[in-house]
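Field log, afternoon session.

UNIT: design team B
ACTIVITY: writing a sequence onto a fixed backbone
BACKBONE:
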């Protein structure tokens, strides 16, 4: 399974919005520069995210984009579903009637389990988790250690 470039870039765009959440709108050109992604490509992705209600846009001198809700409320499953579309690994996992061998297929249960595991993981992660993991990795977490 490979995720599309749209999903990879879209999650990086959303990371930027989550990282800057509460600081006001962020310009798409700034995100493009920081993430080294074409602004033109990001403008196509932002349309999907805005129509799905994940992102809000603001016009004017202080315009840009923000998350429509808190990063802790945006599950990665929602993000991937919007950007990637149907995530079924196989047609028979999505629709059992699509396979005439479903009743005796030795691997269908495996594929269904794999899809459940991926969906459960995506459901358990939020944009806030992504930001916190980044901060921890880069030492920005602000953790205090006592000796």
């Amino acid at each position: 399974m490979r995720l599309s470039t749209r999903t990879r870039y879209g999650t990086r765009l959303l990371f930027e919005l989550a990282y800057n959440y509460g600081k006001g709108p962020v310009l798409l050109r700034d995100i493009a520069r920081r993430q080294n992604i074409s602004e033109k490509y990001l403008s196509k992705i932002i349309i999907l995210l805005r129509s799905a209600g994940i992102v809000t846009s603001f016009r004017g001198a202080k315009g840009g984009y923000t998350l429509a809700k808190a990063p802790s409320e945006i599950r990665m499953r929602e993000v991937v579903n919007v950007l990637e579309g149907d995530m079924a690994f196989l047609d028979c996992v999505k629709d059992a009637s699509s396979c005439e061998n479903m009743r005796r297929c030795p691997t269908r249960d495996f594929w269904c389990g794999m899809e459940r595991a991926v969906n459960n993981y995506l459901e358990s992660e939020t944009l806030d988790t992504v930001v916190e993991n980044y901060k921890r990795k880069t030492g920005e977490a602000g953790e205090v250690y006592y000796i």
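LOG NOTE: Residues 71 and 128 are 5 Å apart (CA to CA).
NEXT ACTIVITY: expression trials, pending approval
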